[in-house]
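User: Before I run my own analysis I want an independent prediction to cross-check against. Here's the chain; please return only the structure tokens and, at the end, one sentence I can use as a sanity check.
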Amino acid sequence: MEIGFFTLPEKIWNEKKGKFVNNKLYSWDELEEFREKNKFNYIEFMIEHMYYYNTLNQKPKSCKICHLSLLDTPLLHKENFEFVCKFYKMQILKYKKWFKIFDIHLPYRWLFVPKKVYLERIENFAKFLEKLAKEKKVEILLENELHSYEEFLVLTERDYKNLGITFDLGHAYMSYVTKRCKIHPFKFFNKIFDKVENIHLMDSHRNWKIHHEHLSLGKGSLPIKKFLSILDHKGYDKMLTLEMLKINDIKESRKYIQHSFNHFKPLIYGTNAT
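Assistant: Structure tokens:
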């Protein structure tokens, strides 16, 4: 298993102050030093983290994956669909010189969009991305947000060679508690497991319905250790990205994983480890 972490956002929510405050940021070189010191394999670059976007003038040494901008345009009308496709194509064309793996949030189904129509749009969207990925020689990972597992089965039932899935545990719980998804997140994960190439992991509270909290592992109420045991049981050996907002939380979460997996270290420190 390869373990990485996200670049850092400029602002983070301060619950006590009831507002966003400045986050402590680190240069690309400092992130690289932190990665090496704490035995991470890679960094996931989110282009909406503007400090890192504005200071990116060459390919970061250990950035393995590029997380593209979030886009909540519903895939309903032809114009909407064409806009979404063009938007992501432009971003991939811009960054493919530096990255070979891209993360895209699968546009979720707005409640006014009939499910049958949405599933047809998702299938067409997947076909478009598969063709684009093949032409540009990249891999595209579609990430779950407010989705039901049926909406992601569209991606597992076809033999897409260049499309995979990023499974976000926090998003899966949001879908579950808001009843967008009627099966437990672990069952969701099991149904799409064969296509999962990356996992976004953080802690949160199970009743959090607006957005997951990006807490350090063990600081919320999600069954993180149970999820890690599932990964071990299944022999998961792809990417696992820690999605915390502060550098100390990333470091503590790395220790949490190491402690949890202590009795089967070979899974963590495999041939891909540094």
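Sanity check: The chain has one domain: 2-268.
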